Amino acid sequence: MASVGQLHMLFTCPFCWKVRSLLEHLNLEFETIQINPLKQKKSLPSAPEWVKVPVWVENDGEIYVDSTPIMKHIDNNFNEGKLWKSTNEKRRDEWMEWVDLRLSKATIPILYGSIGSALKTTLMVSKLEKFGFFSKRIYAWAGFPIMWGIIARTRVKKDGRKPKKLWHDLLTEFTDEFNGSPFFGGDNPDLVDIAAFGYVRSISPYVQFKELEDHAEGMKWYRAVEETLKT
Ligand SMILES: N[C@@H](CCC(=O)N[C@@H](CS)C(=O)NCC(=O)O)C(=O)O
Fold this sequence. Notes:
This protein is an alpha+beta fold. It folds into two domains: about 5-80, Glutaredoxin; about 90-225, Glutathione S-transferase Yfyf (Class Pi), Chain A, domain 2 (Up-down Bundle), CATH 1.20.1050.10. The protein has ten helices and four strands; from the N terminus they run βαβαββαααααααα. The protein has helices at about 15-25, 40-45, 65-80, 90-110, 115-130, 135-160, 165-175, 190-200, 210-215, 215-225; strands spanning about 5-10, 30-35, 55-60, 65. It has a four-stranded mixed beta sheet with strand order 2-1-3-4, with helices on one face. Strand 3 and strand 4 (about 65) form a beta hairpin. Helix 1 (about 15-25) packs across helix 8, helix 4 packs across helix 6 and helix 5 (about 115-130) runs antiparallel to helix 6. Glutathione binds near residues 13, 51, 52 and 54.
């Protein structure tokens, strides 16, 4: 199958993992353009109006931005909107908002919430992303005090819970909403499942993922969604 579009992305960006997971779930061929995080503002096809990743460029040249709208578009265009279709739109919309608000905010605390984890994460990010020779080294050592000291610490303090507890609470809240079904979407994952999965998956390259792995219900769901992706 020919590629249906290009995903401009950062490897470590949770929003990009949402879109990648959907493309893989739908078994679509696509090209990934991994950008240099320090050159993002210049290199994105949507700039200067939109300088965030992911950016989706479809084969007809049309540009789409913002992960959830991109997901809805891809589902609509290549899958007859089946994953967004719902018999309870109010529930679906509320939970998509919950996923985008709550799960997106929980990734930084678990990855950067303590000085040790912040250092590990920053070193890993410097390996995974396409930095230049010097910027890679600068980022690895200068990035973590910023992420830990300024961003993560404030978030952890504001929430009051340890990052692991926060994730366990969120996974419980989410899986409780399944009402006995294997997925939020019922017998099969829907767009809310795939979006939530994308956020969780963005933590999977890091050692901190093991803190999520002992949430039994959460992992049962996570592995079940993973099974549905193209291998
Ligand atoms: N609401 C956007 C958020 C995207 C976003 O914040 N991406 C980050 C990377 S994880 C980014 O590009 N930040 C650069 C910036 O805000 O200038 C989405 O869901 O796509």
